[in-house]
């Protein structure tokens, strides 16, 4: 509420209510949907837009909005996913599903590299960072048919995430 002054009959200034405005910003109640990333950006990141899958088996999980794509044909060697939830970065350390946490720089963002417990780091990788009240996690999982990929999964993942940076919440 903004307060101004008006003049009383005897010349003294009195408070006068002039307007009301909101100054609080509400946190989102549902996470941002990564499936809204434009196809052109997905293609620039080296992913195949025709393989887009919302959720895991069509469903969001554990409060996360999820979207994923395969890399472009003819490769189809890995699956790239983005998970967005209303959680802090501590979620990675507080959940028994992740380990091997380390700080990294992905594009312009300070991030945390991680592995899923029991995952083979030679073929899989994950990275996460926060944007406002949202945790954005991305994973790269190499196809089980690939033995010893010709790429480093974390380098490949970080490159794709950096390419999509302008499309992600900040």
Task: Give a structural overview.
This protein has 170 residues and is mainly beta. The chain is 14% helix and 37% strand. The strands form two sheets. The chain has a seven-stranded antiparallel sheet with strand order 3-4-5-9-8-7-6, covered by helices on one side. A two-stranded antiparallel ribbon has the order 1-2. Strand 1 (2-7) and strand 2 (13-19) form a beta hairpin. The longest helix has 12 residues, at 153-164. It is globular. It starts with a strand and ends in a 6-residue tail after the last helix.
Question: In a few lines, what is going on in this structure?
Answer:
By secondary structure, the protein is mostly beta strands.
Q: Helical residue percent?
A: 10-25%
Could you tell me the number of beta strands?
9
Distance between the termini: 29 Å
Q: Count of helical segments?
A: 3
SSE arrangement, N to C: EEHEEEHEEEEH
Molecular shape: globular
Largest sheet: 7 strands, antiparallel
Rounded average pLDDT: 86
Overall structural class, as computed from helix and strand content, comes to mainly beta
Approximate strand percentage: 35-45%
**How big is the Rg?**
23 Å
Across the major sheet, the strand order is 3-4-5-9-8-7-6
List unreliable stretches of 5+ residues.
Answer: 18-23
